[in-house]
Amino acid sequence: MLRRASSPMLLPTTKSIRRLESASVGAPRRAIRCLADLVFPYSCLGCEGEPASEASAFCVNCETSLQAERSFAACPACSATVAPFEVADGRCRHCRKDAQTLDGCVRAGPYAGLFGHLLRRFKFQNREELADFMADALAVAVKSAKWLERVDGVAPVPTHWRRRVTRTYYPAQVLARLVANQIECPFVPLLRRTRAGPHQIGLSPTARLANVRGAFALRSGVILKGAKILLVDDVRTTGATLGECSKVLRKEGASEVYAAVAVRVEPIHSGSDVLQSI
Asked: Is residue 241, in this structure, part of any structural domain at all?
């Protein structure tokens, strides 16, 4: 069992959590997907090719690509891809001069590759069967973090209710729930988004900060006192959203805030057209 930190924390009741948006996918959609699996041959989740084996969800080429992307070293503070010996005092050249809002951040993989392709399929194409793979990869990253045993609860970065009603599921919440289960830590949806605002896609770093400033608040009935929270999101670009969520949690009493993201957009791409696709 994972040892919990002794810091007290009052979390939402089970009843209140059940009233929140369910992370499970809809039963009708699952039934259709299962029927399709029976009618059509199973294919690679990455390229629709032939899987490497009956036990694999990917073909040989995609498995090789995913393994390579997992091997890329990442900064323990901002999760950007780094070169050997680039990290000094726990931070890389990309985040060394930035204000530190998180106590650590891990990722499943980089955005610029197969991980990014799979995340887009999961997020925008309703490929629900990718949920377990993305969560498994993210859980592996979390389990490798030195701060794992300090975490008291896993919280998703929230979206506004207006956006949730247009989707069958919300990726960050699905991933947070699955990761929490794998690391044997409570799933605690602590935050709510108070206003929708425009999407972060395509905005400059300065505009991203302004767009999320004051956009999050603690849910009613939640009291944090010395809690150590792991935030989960699907994509990290500049870190503006995670940083704003962290500020709210710290202001309300959290002593440490960590983050885990499915994919990380590299800092050199933060102002480029690559963001138009996420």
From this structure: yes
| DSSP assignment letter at 150 | G
Exposed e or buried b per residue across 168-182, where buried means at least 16 C-beta atoms within 10 angstroms of its C-beta: ebbbbbbbbbbbbee
pLDDT confidence of residue 218: 96
Q: Is residue 60, in this structure, part of any structural domain at all?
A: no
39 within some domain: no
Query: What total number of domains does the chain contain?
Result: 1
Burial of 161 (0-12, 13-18, 19+ CB in 10 A): exposed
- Please check the confidence at residue 273 and state whether its pLDDT lies above 70: no
Which has the closest alpha carbon to 200: 250, 229, 169, 157?
157
SS (H, E, C) 168-187: CCCHHHHHHHHHHHHCCCCE
Residue 203: closest CA among 237, 253, 251, 249: 237
Parallel/antiparallel/unpaired status of strands 191-193 and 153-156? unpaired
* pLDDT at residue 7 is higher than 90: no
Q: What is the pLDDT of residues 191-212, one digit of tens each?
A: 999 976 655 555 556 666 666 6
Q: What is the CATH number of the domain that holds 268?
A: 3.40.50.2020
pLDDT (mean) for 58-81: 96
| Cα separation values, 100 from 209, 246, 261, Å | 14, 10, 17
Task: Give which of 143, 121, 149, 139 is closest to 58, Cα–Cα.
Answer: 121
Q: How far apart are CA 32 and CA 28, in angstroms?
A: 6
DSSP SS3 for 35: helix
Range of the domain at 88: 9-24+73-277
Amino acid at 151: V
- What's the residue count for the chain? 278
107 token code pair: 């990722």
Cα separation, 64 vs 75, whole angstroms: 23
